Amino acid sequence: MADYDKTDIPEHYTEARKLPPETIDMWMRALTDSLPAVTFRTVVDLGCGNGRFAVPLADWFKAEVVGVEPSDKMLAEAAANFTAPGVRYLRGSAEAIPLPDDCADLVFLSQVFHHINDMPKAMAEIARILKPCGALCIRNSTTETLETVLYLRFFPTARQANPAKLPTKQELVDAVTGNGFRVHRSTTVTQVFAEDHLRYADKVGLRSLSDLAAISDQEFEAGMELLREYCLKAPAHEPVTDDISLFVFTRDQALA
Ligand SMILES: C[S@@+](CC[C@H](N)C(=O)[O-])C[C@H]1O[C@@H](n2cnc3c(N)ncnc32)[C@H](O)[C@@H]1O
Question: Which residues constitute the domain of residue 81?
Answer without folding.
Answer: 4-147+164-194+244-251
